[in-house]
Amino acid sequence: MVIIAIIYNILDVEKPLPIYQPSQVDQELVDSTLLDVRKYHKIADFSLINQNGKIITQDDYKDKIYVADFFFTTCQTICPIMTDHMAKIQKEILNDDEVMLLSHSVTPQIDSVAQLKRYAIEKGVNDAKWNLVTGDKKQIYELARKSYMAVKTVGNGDEFDMIHTENFMLIDKKKQIRGYYDGTDPEAINKLLKDIEILKREYKK
Hints:
By secondary structure, the chain is α/β, with parallel strands linked by helices. It contains 5 helices and 9 strands, in the order αβββαβαβαββββα.
């Protein structure tokens, strides 16, 4: 192991990003059915509606690296900071055909297509790069808990009530989670941007 470490240092070999499995993530964020899953975890297929009323599925992200998060448009706490940071990422990837963004509303009953459109215009969302999606609450909840592992339950008996976290998730072209980042922390956003470049280089090898 020492010899391998020395060789890595000498050659300055870039370590690949981890592939996150449910067993490695904070158990508060993981559906109980997945707590022991240690391999083969991928983001499930989905069908949601974006700010333009277009149906968005995994096909729209095929062969793409993307950053995902969960938010709601009326949030006055962490969401505005997260959205501003997502806008920063958008600016950095604007001309990069390999990378996109995906934000899921956790209050789809409030965040209609019209509401998402108003929010998108206000926040400078580029429709070609960034989808804000709404739709069936059960589907969004299951994506949040069983795919992205990014929300907590409120614990009041309603299985579809959720508290989103500040997490941004980096998803690779195989629909695997390659990183979690604090969407309110500028340093974490800088790391995310660097990790996107690492991931892109992985596909060029």
